[in-house]
Specification:
nine-stranded mixed β-sheet, six-stranded antiparallel β-sheet, globular
């Protein structure tokens, strides 16, 4: 049973929404964030990545950074200004990227249900990143970016969402710099939608594991500081957008490796041929699951397992990212831990295979691997099994925007 709760959103006025809305804090580095926010005092990146307004070389987890986040948040709230809804509501958030469309429900979800794993995970979190977002939440007393959740689609919810759009002008409707269209509606009569979600047995984190973990840690700290707790305090809930699984789009998350682990090109290819069937002059993108494309020495090769190869067992080991790791990256290239090994890097989403070719041509990588995208069903099965997906297995696109609907705690 999934609990979703309306909230009094803190949000920008309609004529400033496009200026305020910012990509998630963790999909851009500091230089990219600074460039995106340049000349725009209302960009929410000044709040989510406040180090862009501090001298270069400032430690990103220093006290000055979190103090700057609060100062910028207060400046945005007063100057933009941000407005707090008088009554609690649910919201609908539609994303359009080319022909692709998805509509999610913006709500607050239960930290208790997250802690009890009724909101299921598929990724491990890093303590330093948890520390960062926990401090950010506690410093602002607000959750400023939503956790991206999925649920198995239900016709009743689809019908209620469609009905909520009728004769309901949007609060926001704009096209961002990356040509993604963002449209948001308020759902005043939210009770039927909230009741319908009570029939959903599990929710799944698609993107935002560190935000969810940090909301849980922030709640624990605030409970210790509080008195006369009743369970309805806002910090017991965290900001989410919930999408049906059949509307989600996962793009490939590709790999580059900086060297060939001491092997020559010919030696490396010979080792790969011991494990995979290798075809020359292949497509840059594999056409189906169980195939990989490899860029080496200015040409693409296709990789596939031999017909007599033993099929991997288990929901995680059977993933394409796992097969590549277990049969090539680890034994041949010596990449034991993709979380910590500096010789491997990841190229996700919209950057595509041209970026892989560019990195190899420029000598920043020795070899690149193009993968077939992990499916949403893979993610749900791994989560249901209580397992963890390999790092950098999924790249969801399009991305939600921070700063449009803020949950104050």
């Amino acid at each position: 049973m999934a609990t979703i709760r309306p909230f009094n959103a803190l949000r920008p006025p309609a004529d400033r929404a496009a200026q305020v809305a910012a990509v998630p804090y963790d999909v851009v580095n500091m230089e990219e964030a600074r460039d995106l926010a340049a000349g725009n005092p209302w960009s929410f990146l000044h709040v989510s990545r406040p180090e862009i307004d501090l001298p270069e070389g400032t430690f990103i987890y220093s006290d000055e950074v979190y103090a700057k986040a609060l100062a910028n948040f207060e400046k945005l709230t007063e100057g933009c200004p941000l407005e707090r809804e008088e009554t609690p509501s649910l919201y609908l958030y539609r994303l359009n990227m080319g022909a692709h469309e998805q509509i999610g429900v913006v709500a607050c979800c239960s930290v208790d249900e997250y802690d009890r794993e009724l909101i299921r995970k598929h990724e491990r979190t890093r303590r330093d990143k948890e520390d960062d977002r926990t401090r950010h939440i506690l410093g602002l007393r607000a959750q400023t970016g939503p956790v991206f959740l999925a649920y198995r689609a239900r016709p009743q919810i689809d019908s209620l969402v469609a009905g909520s759009l009728k004769s309901n002008p949007p609060l926001y409707d704009f096209v961002a710099q990356d040509d993604i269209r963002h449209t948001v509606w308020r759902v005043a009569n939210y009770h039927p939608l909230a009741e319908a979600f009570r029939e959903v047995p599990y929710l799944y984190i698609a993107d935002g594991h560190h935000r969810a973990a940090s909301a849980s840690r922030a709640r624990a700290e605030l409970k210790e500081q509080g008195f006369s707790l009743v369970g309805s305090e806002e910090y017991n809930f965290f900001l989410c957008v919930l999408f049906p699984d059949n509307q989600l789009q996962i793009l490939p998350y590709n790999r580059i490796v900086r060297d060939l682990n001491g092997l020559s090109t010919d030696e490396f290819l010979a080792r790969v041929r011991e494990v995979f069937v290798v075809s020359n002059d292949a497509s840059a993108a594999p056409g189906k699951r169980g195939q990989w494309s490899m860029y080496l020495g200015g040409r693409w090769y296709a990789l596939a397992l031999p017909n007599d190869a033993a099929a991997p067992a288990g929901v995680v080991d059977s993933l394409d990212v796992s097969i590549l790791q277990n049969r090539l990256l680890d034994p041949i290239l010596g990449i034991k831990n993709v979380r910590t090994d500096k010789r491997i890097d990841f190229v996700g989403g919209m950057r595509g295979t041209k970026e892989l070719e560019k990195l190899v041509r420029e000598g920043r990588a020795a070899v690149a691997f193009s993968l077939y995208a992990t499916t949403v069903e893979d993610l749900l099965r791994v989560s249901d099994a209580g397992e963890i997906m390999p790092p950098k297995s999924t790249w969801f696109e399009p991305k939600l925007r921070d700063g449009l609907l803020i949950h104050q705690i």
